[in-house]
Amino acid sequence: MHKSPDVSPRRLSDISPQLRQLKYLVVDEAIKEDLKSSRSVEDINSASIEERILRITGYYGYQPWSTSYKREDRTRENVVGTTDAQSAGAVGGAESGSNRRRLHCCIRVTIVQVQKALWGVAMVMCVCSSWAGSTQLAKLTFKQFDAPFTLTWFATTWNCLFFPLYYVGHLCKSPERQTPKQRFRECCRFFGDDGLTPKVFFTKVAPFGLLWILTNYLYLQALRKINTTDVSALFCCNKAFVFLLSWIVLRDRFMGVRIVAAILAIAGIVMMTYADGFHSHSVIGITLVVASASMSALYKVLFKMVLGSAKFGEAALFLSIVGSANFVFISFVPVILYFTHVEYIGSLEDIPWAYLCGVAALLFAFNVLVNFGIAITYPTLISLGIVLSVPVNAMVDLYTCEIHFNTVRLIAVFIICLGFLMLLLPEDWDQCIIQLSTKLRKRDDPAEGSGEAGTATGLNWRGRARTSMSTFAH
């Protein structure tokens, strides 16, 4: 009688035709590798031919090489006398292994965070020193070379070095090295599918180049009118202007703490003006530096609105294009200012090239740290370096006797710096404070009840878990 193929054979005689055709049976190499983890190959080879057929073909559900056939199942089937203590030991070993792996992971994460924090400290010092150094050196330069626009043009031209510097880093770090032309074309996709066309240049690059030059020129002009401490403090207001413009133009999230920070920045500007008695000289200088901060904020907001976020290579290419355009299209302006005696230079020997190159190099280093420093540390630490340049400039001005710190000026500087720091708070800062206060409150509260220590500890842990989840829910 013919059997249905769906019915498994119950006797060896049902597969006798296949048995007669087999003289030798060799276990496949792939199956041998799988069998090594479950059952020795020697055991299979020493078995009878019928048993080997049943095991290899999988009749009666015996598939020792199947991934679903676990080693624990084979142990329970073949080993007799396994006790509960042995099973508990295996579970305990698995838990200890899992805890060990978790501990290694936590240690690794902690080391990475410590390294990033150490890099952040170094970055804060570098940003602070480069920004304060460029400000002080520019102030000294104007005593011998009173040409702020020429200095702006000269420093902006150094931006051409951004993309070559990035490409050197690309060759050192990237596993897939590209030629400069290939890398240039890939980064040009940031401007659109057509790349950097004349239309894109005049609509998306040239306006930002003008804003860049205006920001630096107004900042240097302000240094000619007022001291470096007031200039560096007032320029920190650009963070508040960025928030206000982002809230109005980009429809960013409204945050009450940042509105308060913006109000503090405006109050600091008014108090800074009042500190000098509203003299025309100081009012012009304060107006210039506030205009510089406004141009900087407009540059950042428009860049985010028009071009979006840029990667490191795209940002380097963009800044290099700005520097190249400045050299090609703006070079005639210093020449006109020279012949019209607006920025008159006696001779080339009178130009303090060391000061000019120092200012340009420090500004270039500052821009490199600000744009590429987020690769190794947190952006908040980079912004912290900018506000720390205010006390550094104050110490230098106090040492050189170029500033008189009255009470109003000290309060104004403090208010502006406080507003800048408040703008660095994350969006969920209130939730973080609530979580921290909840944890501290739970830690300080004594455990209720002194009867059973174990029961009290368990209740305390459950209370903490519920509080944490309710905090995240809000």
Overview of the structural elements:
With 474 residues, the chain is mainly α. Helix content is 72%, strand content 0%. The protein is built from 21 helices and no strands. The chain has helices at 16-21, 29-36, 41-46, 49-57, 71-78, 84-141, 148-157, 162-173, 180-188, 198-223, 228-235, 238-248, 256-275, 280-306, 312-329, 332-339, 353-372, 379-400, 407-423, 429-444, 453-473. The N and C termini lie far apart (73 Å).
Question: Whole-number radius of gyration?
Answer: 36 Å
* Global geometry: globular
Structural class by helix and strand composition: mainly alpha
Instruction: Give the SSE string.
Output: HHHHHHHHHHHHHHHHHHHHH
Strand % is: under 5%
Main beta-sheet annotation? none
Number of helices in the DSSP assignment? 21
Mean pLDDT, rounded to whole units? 75
Helical content (DSSP H or I, runs of 4+): over 70%
N- to C-terminal distance: 73 Å
Runs in which pLDDT lies below 50 for 5 or more consecutive residues are 1-10, 37-42, 59-88, 447-474
Question: Which tags fit this structure?
Answer:
mainly alpha; disordered N terminus; transmembrane helix; EamA_dom; transmembrane; single chain; 21 helices; 474 residues
Brief summary of the model shown:
By secondary structure, the chain is mainly alpha-helical. Helix content is 72%, strand content 0%. The chain is built from 21 helices and no strands.
